[in-house]
Amino acid sequence: MSRTLFTLLLACCLAVGAFSARGHAAPRPAPQADRQAPRPAAGSAPTDAVDGRSALSERAPRSTDSLRPQQSKAAPRALAAATCTVSDFTTRTGSALVATIKGASVDCVNSLFPLTGSDAYGAFREAQMVTVANALRDVSASYPGDNSGSATQLVLYLRAGYYAQWYHPADVGPYGSALQTAIRGALDAFFGSAHSRDVTDANGQTLSEAVTLIDSAAENARYLSVVKRLLSGYNSSYNASWYMLAAVNNTYTVLWRGHQNADFVTAVQNDGSVLTTLDAFATANNALLGGDLGYLVSNAGRELGRFLQHSALQPTVRPLVKHLLDQSTMTGRTAALWVGAAEMTAEYDAANCAYYGTCDLANRLKAAVLTVSYTCSPSIRIVAQQMSATELADSCTSLRNQDAYFHGVVRDSGPVAGDTNTAIEVDVFDSSADYQTYAGAIFGIDTNNGGMYLEGNPAAAGNQPRFVAYEAEWVRPAFQIWNLNHEYTHYLDGRFDMYGDFNAGQAQPAVWWIEGFAEYVSYSYRGVTYTDAQTQAGRHTYALSTLFDTTYDNADSTRIYNWGYLAVRYMLQSHRADVDAVLAKYRAGDWTGARTYLKSTVGTRYDADFNSWLTACSAGNCDSAPQAPECTGADARQLGKDCRRSNLAATTGNYSYLYVYIPAGTARLTVTSAGGTGNADLYYNGSTWATTGAYTARSTGSGNGETLTITNPPAGYNYISLYAQAGFSGASVTTSF
Q1: Which of 8, 89, 407, 557 is least enclosed, having the fewest CB within 10 Å?
Q2: Strand residues in 477-593 grouped as ranges (E)
């Protein structure tokens, strides 16, 4: 990811995208998209389950959310149920293996995707897969249109085997002609059975998995007839079943990945009826656009347009794509179809953009959609699809005040060397649907998430870092930019803590800090209890030393976000000196040194204490942001380094006066007020008592939550006050430098 961070999203899409050199993603509010077949495009990196990182320059079809729990490729060995263990599948062969699979739950079989090493070999070597494929063939001969014969488990087991073999071929071993023959027999039998055509939820459960298995087995060309059958047969009766809708949508995965196979391209060249089927499907179902099922139509347009990459097919595909563009528009109800098809013309037939009307696509879309521009400060600008003046002002206040909180936590001394990212652009779409429709075409990013921070190259002149986000429409009438503070933390962290670009930092595992700290600041700064993390703490799943090994490739979203937060919070609260030592190395780009410190100097020393801390956290000790200790000076007005004065109060129009002694050479003083009742404004003066008539900096928001950051404060006594705009009590002021 470059520093490209993105947030996980509500209405599902499996999207693989290329984007700039540093990108981070925050967690999305719904389950991850269904695990798709394990064949990334030739020459590309495997897609990460959490943030969709890949070398691909295009995005895959949107997918409905999986109803099955997701596991990462490095998930723990414990499976879905107490009776479901790896050895059930690795130590049995022949009919005993088949019986075990049939007797297992769907969740249990789904848990096998992450197997590696000897377990993957035991479960998925070619002889095992041939046995299971033949069993699916036999079950399909009398398939009744439901899972009474455990066809779903057999299909899913085969998918898991192909998945494991793709990502870990040395563990599983090669697959050859024996398996190809067996899987063709199995799929021929299943799709040839009369009940595989039933439009029912019972059939859809197996059918949706079987369609994806086509791609897992790289049999995309052989089963184009199934793709056409599902697209041509779709009607409103399918809408009553999530599984039947998934079966239809999974045909787009068969098409999307089929382009990697020469036999697939040849098959379409010999019989182009799948092209006209896509056009007919999108045209006949245009009314779905703008609704919950619009993705079925926009995916049809996108996958039709993807065939433009083959010069032999362009004479056929061009007029069909133009036909879809002509029946849709850049904005409004049909925008998802227009944008999806237009993206493909820009990707594969840009020289003919005038024919399609898609020239200068990204800039035209941005100008048409992101029409609101608002300058928050010299370092922050919001560009939005639709935001009111109040929403803009409130969002700006949240971002500006976060600066001081951030610097108070990390205690940096300024930007890392060579970082020129002095101003961020926050691009906000009006909803998750608008984000999915437009963000990929405008910014070239994956949208299977809840927003993305694009750092770019921080050393390049004119580089523009940006956070691409959307309004959380599900909390309306309240207004919220989803993951606003998480993603803004990535910007600040990249500028003040992480040397160079994101790829440099990934030379050694640093995700525990990158994502865990973004979660920590987001929740702690807003004073929100992170209930998901507290729940995870009670499960005691990981040792602290294990969390230092987290990467985007070996972890699921729970480990990356929930457990990253727990690791960061524990280290900041319990071992601040170690955090400072690691950050010093991150800021210098000494990734190996930071890794050595975490794995050798820290090592496993804190694992037992962390485990005890998790118990307290799950019991409620993580309900609020950690607080600095009370200052210990004899004068109750005296503040100090990294401490607070609590229970401050004043009546309306009066002050609570404070002061702090600042050593020479201090680069930054952060002052934060919080808590209590009433409305206290924060004032600062570097030379005399701070009042409303004598101050050099102030923060005057509503309530008592105020922050100030003073750069290069004068040595000696500095003065701070809380002014009672309305009488207040129970407030606190914290200083850090």
Answers
A1: 557
A2: none
559, amino acid identity:
R
Among 504, 519, 537, give the residue marking a domain's end.
504
Same domain, residue pair 395 and 489? yes
How, if at all, do strands 380-384 and 424-429 pair?
Answer: parallel
Q: Are residues 531 and 618 in the same domain?
A: yes
Domain holding 717: CATH number? Answer: 2.60.120.380
Residue that finishes a domain, picked among 452, 471, 504: 504
Same domain, 571 and 651: no
Asked whether residue 511 falls in the same domain as residue 464, the answer is: no
Please, are residues 61 and 302 in contact by the beta-carbon 8 Å criterion?
A: yes
User: How far is CA 528 from each of CA 220, 524, 623, rounded to the nearest angstrom?
Assistant: 48, 6, 8
- Over 60: is that where the pLDDT of 499 sits? yes
Is 94 domain-assigned?
no
> What are the pLDDT digits (tens) for 524-556?
988 889 999 999 999 999 999 999 999 988 888
487 is catalytic: yes
Q: Are residues 435 and 484 in the same domain?
A: yes
Over the chain, what is the mean pLDDT? 87
Average pLDDT over residues 150-162: 97
Domain residues for the domain of 666 are 643-736
Active-site annotation holder among 126, 219, 487, 519 = 487
Q: Is the pLDDT of residue 444 over 50?
A: yes
More confident residue, 438 or 401: 438
Same structural domain, 531 and 472: no
- Count Cβ atoms within 10 A of the Cβ of residue 42 and give its class: 0-12 exposed, 13-18 middle, 19 or more buried: exposed
Structurally, how many domains does the chain consist of?
Answer: 3
Which pTM was predicted? 0.77
Calculate helix-pair angle for 224-233, 273-284, nearest 10 degrees.
Answer: 20
Residues 6+ apart with CB under 8 A from 398: 484, 485
> What does the pLDDT look like over 353-410, one tens digit per residue?
999 999 999 999 999 999 999 999 999 999 999 999 999 999 998 898 888 889 888 9
Concatenate the DSSP letters of all residues of 325-373 into one string.
HHTS-SSSTTHHHHHHHHHHHHHH-GGGHHHHT-TTHHHHHHHHH--EE
Considering the domain architecture, whether residues 428 and 521 belong to the same structural domain is answered as no
CATH code at 539? 1.10.390
- Which residue has better confidence, 362 or 56? 362
Do the strands 677-685 and 697-699 form a parallel or antiparallel pair, or are they unpaired?
antiparallel
**Are 521 and 613 in the same domain?**
yes
Query: Residue 213 has which token pair?
Result: 């298995």
User: How many whole angstroms separate alpha carbon 1 and alpha carbon 6?
Assistant: 10
Mean pLDDT value across residues 407-434: 92
The pLDDT of residue 381 = 96
Question: Is residue 5 pLDDT above 70, yes or no?
Answer: no
